[in-house]
Amino acid sequence: MSRAEQREQTRRALLREGRRLFAAEGYGAVGLSQIVTAAGVTKGALYHHFDGKAALFRAVLAQVQKEVGRRVAATADAETDPWDQLVAGCHAFLAASTDPDVRRIMLIDGPAVLGWQEWRALDEAASARHLAEALTGLVEAGVIAEQPVAPLTHLLSGAMNEAALWLADSPDPQNLPDTLAALTRMLESLRA
């Protein structure tokens, strides 16, 4: 195995074990020693790839956000009508966010570890941009009443993030279908 392959294997192991531990125990409860032991590497190897635990967490969060984004995009892209794409994508986001690992890393520890501003910037780059693009297209097509898209994007994104947190803490399996129905009614109220 080449040195480049070894480095990539080490990086993948750190991301995999960091993610597993952050999801299971939360960022604050996980120490660097625990991560490097689980990954089977040294602290020096971790510092070769990341500036520390926060940098590893940032990389794990980016990975989780990309995975959720791909799931949302795949679900939305399965629809042909732009309105149906929006609804399907919003539903897919809520469904993905009920995964305890996603909830813990993306919605709870993400803002706490990175700070609100950095987390919002990452969230904006990962998902809010796509939501804004979808809403812009629907406004331009006259499907949604003419209005500024930026506040609408932030309102919908915030509502879905809050609903995702609530769903993840809820033991009632009926809450997901009820929340999806409420979201659909909220989205329908936007139609022109």
UniProtKB/TrEMBL annotation:
The keyword Transcription applies. Coiled coil: none annotated. PROSITE patterns: HTH_TETR_2. Pfam families: TetR_C_41 (PF21351), TetR_N (PF00440). Residues 31-50 bind DNA. It comes from the Bacteria. Keywords: DNA-binding, Transcription, Transcription regulation. One of its GO terms (molecular function) is DNA-binding transcription factor activity. Residues 8-68 form the HTH tetR-type domain. This is AcrR family transcriptional regulator. It comes from Streptosporangium saharense.
